[in-house]
Structures are given as structure tokens and as C-alpha cells.
Amino acid sequence: MNYKIYELVGKSKTIPDGYNMRTIETYKLEEIREWDMENDYDSIDAAYADIVKKKDDLKIKTLTILPIININWDGEISYKK
């Protein structure tokens, strides 16, 4: 199975709500783009080890490791590209 590292990216927007202000926060996942990191990992441990190795470059980021499963048009499931 392939694993990829994603960053949780959020932004907030303040809108009027009657006499008060309301803050709306939205989040999305973006694939991490570091020049010396791999795109795909064979195990969750390998992805975690790469994060630990590059922890100084990844400060103040919220990361997650997700398994990648591909399903083709015929419904066949593959775990690798």
C-alpha cells in the first residue's frame, strides 16, 4: 500500500452575524511539497521517519499520513500506482 503525507491548511473568514461577528474556519488537505522528501512511501513508518528527519523544515505545520487506494473503472482495487 502507498502512503502520502498531507498538510492540513486552514484559513478563517470573519462575517457579520446580526450585531456580532462570526468566524468561519475552513480546512483542506494539500500534499506536502518539500524538495528533498519522497512523494510516495511503502509504509507508514517510512513516512513518519521522513517527517522526523525533516522536523526542522516542517515546524508549525499540521501533517497527516494517508493510505492511497486506487479503484479503476471496472471496480478493481490496487494499492500501488
Backbone shape: flat
**How large is the share of residues in beta strands?**
over 45%
Query: Helical amount among residues, as a percent range?
Result: 10-25%
Distance between the termini: 9 Å
| Pattern of helices and strands | EEHEEE
Uncertain segments? none
Topology, number of strands: 5
Mind describing the biggest β-sheet?
Answer: 3 strands, antiparallel
Number of domains: 1
Q: How would you describe this protein?
A:
The chain has 81 residues and is mainly beta. The chain has one domain. Helix content is 12%, strand content 47%. The chain has one helix and five strands, in the order E-E-H-E-E-E. The strands form two sheets. A three-stranded antiparallel beta sheet has the order 2-1-3. Strand 1 (2-17) and strand 2 (20-31) form a beta hairpin. The longest helix has 10 residues, at 44-53. It is flat and about 55 Å long. The mean pLDDT is 87.
Task: Show the helix and strand layout.
Elements: E1 2-17, E2 20-31, H1 44-53, E3 63-68, E4 70-71, E5 77-78
Antiparallel strand pairs: 1-2, 1-3, 4-5
